[in-house]
Amino acid sequence: LRDQDTEADFQRFLRRVDDVTNLLQGLKSPDSAVQKKAIAETEKRLREQGASREEEEEEEEESRTTVNRTLINTSVRAFPSEMKAGLNGFLAALEKDAKERAQRRRRNEQLANALKEQGNEAFRAGDFALAIQRYSEGLEKLRDKQELYTNRAQAYLKLHEYEKALSDCEWALKCNKNCLKAYFLMGKAHLALQHFSESRQCYEKMLQIDPQKEKLFKECVSQARLEEQRLREEQSAQRELQAGSEAALNIQELLQSILSPGHAIPYYSGAIRLLAGAVSTRTGQTLFRTNKGFSMLSSEAVRGRAFCAESRSPAEVELCVSLLLLCQAACAGNEENQRVLLAQPQVGAQLPELLSCGTAQIQRETLALISLYSEHEGGRRLLGRQDVSRWLQVLMAFVKCTDARADRAMNILSDLSGEERFQAQCRATFPTAVLPFFTQLLVCARQVPWAALAQGLAVLGRLCADVGLRAQLAQSRECWQASLELLDGCPAASPGHQQCVFALLGLLMNLLLESNSTIQDFAVPISGRCLALLSHQDGRIVTRATGVLSRLLPAAPSAVHEVVAAGVVKKMLKLLRAGGQLTSSYAIKTLSVCTKSSRRAQEELLKGDKRFQVLLGLLHSGDELTVGNAAFCLSQCLLLPGAASALLGSSVVQLLLRHAGGDAARTSVQQNSAIALGRLCVAEPRHIQQLRKLNGLAILNSSMKYVHSS
Question: What segment(s) does the record annotate as region Disordered (predicted)?
């Protein structure tokens, strides 16, 4: 099929098969018009075939006789019964042939599928040559099976036969022009062949076919860009090497001297320090990699004395620090070198050991090296493949340090906490690894530097974005008890303590997305601490404390009565008058919860908000959640005697009517507004007069069902 003439014949044959199939369907159609058209087309094709055969005979007998062949067409029209019989025979033959072809195709498809599965098994086992053989045998049975082409292309890629992979992808696209896998594999083959422009075009085609593959598209394009950059750097480094530049020769000489055995430790340390200075440029990094500089980490003379020593002498500590500085210089801003470093045997497992070695200098340089990875997405993915529980253990241990190690360790954890793979591993090891570490962190909060503790709490808050982790942590009584103790502090506490409280309140807001008995047990003391924080000088803390109340009170009626007695209504009204969209949304939610179950809260709201000016102002808000809660609070307060009369002469009817008959995305806005409107008119009939002027009686009638159901 790879021959062009053969392919053309094959395509013409397929077109003829399609034409005959269409004719058969037309002849069998119940529509007489379609059937007549198919009969006419069939007669036309028969006449053309008859004329073609007669022309061939005429050419053969041209030397002997001359006949007017137009009589043939006349005879066809003259003998309709013979034509009909011949046509029926022709159609029967066609139908029989089609059935036989369909049977053969079904049989071949079964064989091809079986061979495809055998090829898949061989591929999974790593026997790519056998996989290719099975896929090829399947294609002999069924030439137009797209999956066999793409699977074989994938196997060719594993064997670095990129041209063959491209050819199979092209054939897969002939079978299915929108085959995403074909474009993906073709892009990888072009990338391996350093056809960067063609590779990007393949990935762009994937995005055109399926816009939802944007994440995969970005990853592929990023990989292509890095590969293109790596190639340019290696070519530049090679040119410098060939030109005999001093830097290139210096790197080669230093590598040779370091890899040669028999030297004393100070010699290796000095040479490695010199090498670190030489590879600090982009070209130096590339020369270091292309000259197999990372292989020194596998050298027993170097690695055995630096990384793997159980107890280190001062000279061995210096050697280890020198190696870490060299790794930093080689990997700074260079994703390819970072990948190569972690690909070295035992390096990934050795880094946590260096962090827990107890030598501050080694720990600082190891943290600096790991930070180079955590600062960008590609590096975080590489770190995410390591043992998460071990990383958590060693990094969290730095939280008690009083120097820069604590900040750097927490920054690394904060960077990693947003990675899906990291979250998944944390979820799997939560009871044995994650929960004990963070619980201990909260319990020992007074012994930990405030800045590091705040970062640790922020990490835990980010991890709680994962539903599984959040649900498990929300069940921990130790966590809630430790949080309660940390919230105990005066408003004049240190800035570090304020930052910790701010981070802790964010964590609690995430945890309160859950609902369980543990939360109910701690609802009263937690709400009391948050109420005290409403007088804090830091507005961010006030906002989050209000947010905690808005999420905690709905699940704890006992806490509602406590906070109402402590003056929460007055505090919420003060926050609402001060403005601030986020704070206002939390405050009105808190008021709606309190007025729902406490008559005292309703009375205090009526007393504190003369003529409901605050609530009416919130009904003008552009935030639907705020409007819905304001309408709910108003409807609760309208149960009090005299509340509806206080609203005479205001714009309340117009506002409620607009929301009750509006098209808000949240149906609760319409329902709460309708309930408030109905209660308003029931409690004070004089509001009905304004309702008539606004032609709103129909909306009022429809709203009465909400009033009755409420």
Answer: 28-66
Asked if residue 452 belongs to a domain, the reply is no
| Residue 311: DSSP 8-state | S
366 and 284 in a single domain? The answer is yes
Regarding whether 214 and 250 lie in a shared domain, the answer is no
In contact, 403 and 463? CB cutoff 8 Å? no
In angstroms, the CA 552 to CA 540 distance is 18
CA distances from 201 to 164, 165, 204 (A): 19, 17, 5
Of 213 and 447, which is predicted with more confidence?
Answer: 213
DSSP helix/strand/coil, 388 = helix
Q: Nearest 5°: CA angle at 673, between 669 and 674?
A: 115
Residues 288, 334 within the same domain: yes
- 125 lies in a domain? yes
What 3-state class would DSSP assign to 387? coil
N-terminal to C-terminal alpha carbon distance within the chain: 75
CA atoms in the 13 A half-sphere facing the CB of 684: 21
Which three-class secondary structure state does DSSP give residue 325? helix
Domains contained in the chain, number? 3
Task: With CA atoms as reference, report the closest residue to 656 among 684, 623, 614, 628.
Answer: 628
Number of Cβ atoms within 10 Å of the Cβ of 135: 29
Query: How confident is the model at residue 255, as a pLDDT?
Result: 80
Q: Which domain holds residue 143?
A: 105-227
**CATH code of 363's domain:** 1.25.10.10
Using CA atoms, how far apart are residues 26 and 48, in angstroms rounded to an integer?
19
Q: pLDDT class for 213, splitting at 50, 70, 90? A: confident
Contacts of 534 (CB under 8 A, 6+ apart): 542, 545, 546, 571, 575
CB burial of 185-213 (b: ≥16 within 10 Å; e: otherwise) equals bbbbbbbbeebbeebbebbebbbeeeeeb
